[in-house]
Amino acid sequence: AQERYADLRDKPATTLCGATIGLTMNAGLMADLPSLENSGAEGVGLFRTELQFLARSNVPRRGDLAALYSRVLDAAHGKPVTFRTLDIGSDKVLPYMKRPEEPNPALGWRAIRVGLDKKGIMRMQLQALIRAANGRPLRVMFPFIAQFDEFREARQHLLDEIERERKLGHVLPEQLEIGAMLETPSLAFAPRQFFEMADFISIGGNDLKQFFFAADRENERVRRRYDTLNVSFLTLIETVANRCAEADTPVSFCGEDAGRPVEALCFAAMGLRSLSMRPASIGPVKHLLRRVDLNEARAVIDDARESGAQSVRPAVTEWLSKALA
Ligand code: PEP
Ligand code: MG
């Protein structure tokens, strides 16, 4: 499939109306990095750091993590890489960490909640990231932020670690960007100051959708019940896009849905200008985006919303079949 889109690799995802959508890739292993070149991704929009913690029987050492993150940055050849701090709990359990029995792990002690309560691991990971950057730009985002204070606190830990490294005489990142993942509906309605403080926002659509519709992403019985193109969900995406625009804060979508061409098109029509996806999806998404006018797509979406439709998918698919004919 990658072959089919090879001629698009070095072309931008620019729509007929002149909007350019940044396409980046999701990764989690060193072995994913060659795809950066092959797919034409503009960077790594989401580097999941869990695997290095999960695939072992004890906490990884700071030096080992720093070496790995450094190799990731080397392999990116200057393209931006967004590292997500440890997102454990729920479905991802560390064998060497005692955790409470929880009735609802997806709603429980996970991700940033663990990071803020057990600061040692998070601080060690932040130190590893700063050392890996070794004078290069560093982008870090914190997962599963549900309220402003969690972001403020996590961000302060990173700033404290920067200060500590400075005092130790280590080289600091040339540029530091600190972002939040928006994966809980509450964060979409956080104070304006949150959107201003974040250097960037990344919508974790897999979790956001699960919590928005109260439908377990792992449960086959319910997970397909709610369409991503449901008007309620698209309206939430629009709200986030608008709030980020008002704060002049870049926003991206990094859940699996970003890699589905029709979904990607609708997100762009709602105002998103950056999407992160598995590398194999970049070609197909770019192929569609380059053939559409977002203003037309938006008019179709707005008409469907006005008509009381539950999902805009039928209207968008029908319009596309004519527009692309
Ligand atoms: C998400 O929730 O959309 C996301 C990108 O993170 P993960 O799938 O790792 O939870
Ligand atoms: Mg998530």
UniProtKB/TrEMBL annotation:
Q: What is the lineage of its organism?
A: Bacteria, Pseudomonadati, Pseudomonadota, Alphaproteobacteria, Rhodobacterales
Provide the protein's localization: Cytoplasm
- Natural source organism: Palleronia salina
Tell me the protein's name.
phosphoenolpyruvate--protein phosphotransferase
In terms of the whole protein, what range is present? Answer: 424 to 748 of 750
Q: Which family does it belong to?
A: Belongs to the PEP-utilizing enzyme family.
